Amino acid sequence: MLIRSWDRGDEEEWRAWLAEGRDFGLLAANGAPGEGPVLVPTHFLLDAGRGEILLHLAAPNPLLAAVRADPRVTLAVTDGYAFAPGHWRGAPGTPTSYYASVHFHCTAEVVESAAGKAEILNRQLAHFQPETPEVRVVPGEGELARQLPGLRGLRLTVDEVRAKFKYDDKKPAEAQYAMADRLGERADDGGRGRDQYAAARTQLLRRHQRRTPASHAPTAGTGTPHAPTASTSTPHATAPPSTAPHAAG
Known about the structure:
This protein is an alpha+beta fold. The chain is built from 6 helices and 7 strands, in the order αββββαββααβαα.
């Protein structure tokens, strides 16, 4: 993934973005020689403090064989995407895509033991299904335990994180606020993709506010006030704690 200096997300930003409830992504492993990559859409549990990602798959899933052959994998989470027509962006009228995407480059371990699989499942249940704390997997007990032989756990050790927030950050404030207005119009017209246009507008304004004095930030509402031209400087990725995933440059 190409990341321009003005699109780069730092650790604080991508952690906050994921914490809003983004826990579904596309996991990719290297296929056999002569084949393409193996891709699996999946829910996952990120434990940033431990620098690991947990998930489970059905035992016949071809990604497991790929991981056994080569444990290097990438998990991509993408959201807040919208098409920005060229006539929105001024001269020379080049259209582009807006999106946020975080890629975790990891080393994967297949978890085979019943106890290890139960631990992963229980941590996922506590995250995704917190309203039923009584529903937990105990090896050798109950229906959930009987399903363990058909599952495999995956523990991904995060080696690198690359985060991209592509929302025309290199443009001045006036242009960005105009784009936010356009995105808001698309979100409000009831047409296709309105939720994503609203998400893209929110992310564009959030990115802008991170590099703009608070006095220039837009107020709530459908309209976006225009502000003086802001600096094009962007936040740089900072070194995370030693136990956390690394934010890449």
